[in-house]
Design a protein that fits this description.
Immunoglobulin-like; mainly beta; 568 residues; 38% strand; Jelly Rolls; five-stranded mixed β-sheet; 4 domains; 8 helices; seven-stranded mixed β-sheet
Length: 568
């Protein structure tokens, strides 16, 4: 098996070096064979023990030949369709015997049988139609010329062929365990964990293998080359066939045929080389992933979509031959995203809302009475959130919120409002939200643009600290609280204490310093100052200022840590 092309030609046509004068009884047979140009077109020799890759044009058959020199030879032929079903047949045809020099020119019965065998393509041994990886295996095959014909009626496609006369010792394809199923061992909203039994090629024969996992949203795959063809898309046939693996051994021009006839009509047989950076592995698809994980037989697929069905395949790849075998694939549906309950907002009542990191909360506001406008007061107490407001499905508002914001929307009879609050990537968010159709008496207190507390370093003593903050034009109640902290007061602790949704009612009575009313008509001069006394020397204190609105809702300024002098 695996003779060079000129040997196959010699076996088919044993006319020797003197081509000018053929023996009479073989001349007609020779002319009959070369007259059928399609019989030779796209024909190649299959090497023994090597997997070859090639390309099929739709509705254009391709033929491969190989010889078995001795009777009772074991034979195995494997065909792997890639991205389209194939029809393929394996035939055996006898080799013409060289004619004797003293031939009488009269045809013997054997000559007639041989001519008929070549005309009809030989005796059919095996045929298959589909997209499975299929094999013909015979422990004892007769000698002769074998022809493998392949056809794709669906589309242009890739395929692979492997043939060997030593199937017992030559095993390029890794073996599957007695149970080749892929099991789903754990299932989450965005993860699926798979496990499978190891290949005997690795566990018994101790040969190097690696496993590749394929995750698809479309279907299971029966071969790894089908996955690679899908990933490479337009560049499925990216490299020209290697010399000696896929070539025509017949010199058609030598026999009077025009060069490149059929190939020219269909276009070039070989595709151009791919552009740099366009390899299949560099172009991942959102709905198809291929991950090779070494020799581990457990894998967790992550970053999946909740409530989505995925098809999962495992392929074992030989480290020696690079050939692969598919396990029996499976499918799984990730768990649905936990649906948040929609919170009903009551007109004029403040609602406390918690939004987890990268999470979302839905709120519904359905005013009972007719209204001209709706006002939403949103107080983002920690990290910023994104708010969306829809009325009867129509988006009215979409923007980020940090601190206190007020939104007014024109009313509509019997309208229903749906609010979506979406957290950010930094951390969880706490909010206070008020929806009302009435006047703004129950609104949150107004705040200045700058809500920092300033400490005067020159006015610091061993027992007191003087601070100042900006006020508002409206008359509001301001309350000051203090809490002793150690010198290792961290930013994390400070952030926890910065939850502006926690009002004075969450503080200890012993931490309260005083409350006073304050306002200023001129915002540039609306500055409140206060001296906190009764402090200990060399100690650190966390100071907070709360402003309380007419509706009782409070907002806290940014906290300030001050340290008293140790020596006075």
């Amino acid at each position: 098996m695996g003779l060079p092309g000129w040997c196959v030609l010699w076996l088919l046509f044993p006319f020797g070096a003197r081509m000018q004068k053929l023996p009479t009884r073989d001349e007609e047979l020779f002319q009959m064979q070369i007259r059928d140009k399609a019989f030779f077109q796209d024909s190649s020799v299959i090497p023994d023990g090597a997997e070859i890759s090639s390309y099929l044009f739709r509705d254009t058959p391709k033929r491969y030949f190989f010889t078995v020199e001795e009777d009772d030879t074991p034979l195995a032929v494997t065909v792997t369709p890639c991205d389209a079903p194939l029809e393929w047949k394996l035939r055996l045809q006898e080799l013409p015997e060289p004619a004797s020099a003293d031939g009488s020119g009269e045809r013997e019965p054997l000559d007639l049988q041989r001519q008929q065998s070549v005309q009809e393509g030989g005796a059919e041994l095996f045929s298959y139609r589909g997209n499975d990886v299929e094999s013909f295996v015979s422990p004892s095959s007769p000698s002769g010329l074998y022809q493998l014909e392949l056809l794709s009626t669906e589309k242009d496609t890739l395929f692979k062929v492997y043939a060997t006369t030593t199937p017992e010792s030559d095993r390029p394809y890794p073996e599957l365990p007695y149970d080749p199923r892929v099991d789903v061992t754990a299932l989450g909203r965005t993860t699926v964990t798979l496990a499978w039994k190891p290949s005997p090629t690795a566990s018994v024969l101790r040969q190097p293998v690696q496993y590749c996992v394929v995750i698809s949203q479309e279907h299971n795959f029966k071969s790894l080359c089908a996955v690679e063809a899908k990933l490479s898309a337009d560049d499925a046939f990216m490299t020209a066939p290697k010399p000696g693996l896929d070539f025509s051994p017949f010199d058609f021009a030598h026999f009077g045929f025009p060069p490149g006839g059929s190939a020219k009509e269909r276009g070039l047989l070989r595709r151009p080389s791919p552009k740099p950076g366009r390899h299949a592995s560099a172009r991942p698809r959102a709905d198809l992933q291929k991950v090779c994980i070494g020799n581990k037989n457990i894998f967790t697929a992550s970053d999946l979509r909740p409530g989505t069905q995925y098809y999962l395949d495992v392929f074992v790849v030989s480290g020696r031959s690079n050939a692969s075998t598919a396990y029996v694939g499976t499918f799984a549906r990730t768990k649905e995203e936990a649906r948040e309950k929609t919170l009903e907002l009551k007109d004029g009542k403040v609602a406390d809302v918690f939004v987890k990191r990268k999470g979302a909360k839905f709120l519904r506001f359905a005013p009972i009475s007719s209204h001209q406008k709706v006002t939403f007061f949103v107080h983002s107490c920690l990290d910023a959130v994104h708010i969306q407001v829809r009325r009867d499905g129509k988006l009215l508002l979409s923007q980020p919120v940090e601190g206190i914001r007020q939104f007014q929307i024109r009313g509509k009879p019997k309208a229903k409002y749906l609010l979506k609050l979406k957290g950010n990537k930094r951390g969880a968010s706490m909010l206070k939200l008020l929806a009302t159709t009435g006047p703004s008496k129950a609104a949150f207190p107004s705040l200045p643009n700058d809500t920092r507390i300033k400490a005067f370093d020159k006015l610091r003593t061993c027992s007191s600290a003087t601070v100042a903050w900006l006020g508002t034009q409206e008359r509001n109640k301001f309350c000051i609280y203090k809490k002793e902290v150690d010198d290792k007061y961290s930013e994390d602790q400070k952030k926890r204490d910065q939850n502006q949704c926690l009002g004075p009612d969450a503080r200890k009575k012993s931490e309260k310093v005083l409350c006073k009313h304050f306002h200023g008509q001129n915002l540039q001069r609306a500055v409140a100052t206060e001296t906190i006394r009764g402090l200990q020397p060399g100690r650190s204190y966390l100071l907070d200022v709360y402003v309380i609105g007419h509706g009782g809702h409070s907002v806290r300024y940014h906290s300030k840590v001050v340290k008293t002098r140790k020596f006075c």
